[in-house]
Amino acid sequence: MQRIVVLTGAGISQESGLQTFRGEDGLWNHERIADICTPEGFARDPMRVDRFYNGLRAGLADVQPNAAHRALAHMGECAATGRWDGEILIVTQNIDDLHERAGSRDVVHMHGELMRVRCTACGATPSWHADCLPQTPCPACHRPQLRPDIVWFGEIPYHMDRIAAALQACDLFVAIGTSGVVYPAAGFVQQASPHADTMEFNLQPSAGTDLFDQTVLGPATKTVSRWVRDVTGT
Ligand code: BJW
User: 8, 62, 141, 215: least CB-packed within 10 angstroms?
Assistant: First the structure.
């Protein structure tokens, strides 16, 4: 039985038409990180931050999962049905829902989800498909204290205990479409490498490329699909 942990980043959704963060036409070329992606930025100007995420949420309706998302979902399906003697856990830094729409179950969203909001008064995290504004009441406690359910800089990513246990138990760690500059995700390869094989898939070597046993360069739709076929034999 092969146990695989796959970490995905913005690059896996790029061929679906979503912008990455740090590429030439990346999201951060147009917005200052400190204004949008920190709790302090939200405290200063919640309307600006809400509008930014409302735009991203609305944009999700126009994009579809691509062959790389579908290949990983196929791998999960092969594991679930016994066609492949393995296990795959997808840990994503992405806030989009393309893994789920491709058919993957139990995706770990370590940086939160665009399709949820969080009430800072009662802690509810309802799923959310419409716009959210500073005056929008929480559906659970009715207080207007909703924020995007997204992990900003300086906040602790979600599900860290589960991720650490999976990294500890895996035989293969795979990073797909991530620049390797944002921690703690950038450090996962070092957590896995003492006992597991490690591979990265990217258009270009990531910041941590030397830490991986193998780097596969090319668009994820091609490279990941080929790898899944090789591993599962289907
Ligand atoms: C393709 C492709 C194709 C393109 N095919 N590939 C100094 C040193 C070390 C750490 C720190 C430090 N100062 C502060 C920190 C910590 C900080 C951090 O890491 N900062 C660095 C920037 C220095 N981290 C944090 O604050 C985190 N929290 C934390 O550390 O808490 C402490 C703690 C942790 C654990 C336990 C206990 C305590 C929180 C980080 C939150 C990140 N949030 C964001 C925003 C959310 C969404 C949003 O607002 O829209 O998450 S930032 C942004 O970066 C987003 C992403 O998930 C994340 C990673 O980006 P990603 O996915 O790698 O995208 P890109 O654009 O960078 O790269 C895309 C890649 O794809 C490229 O390589 C392309 O080549 C490739 N690609 N097309 C294949 N078709």
Answer: 62
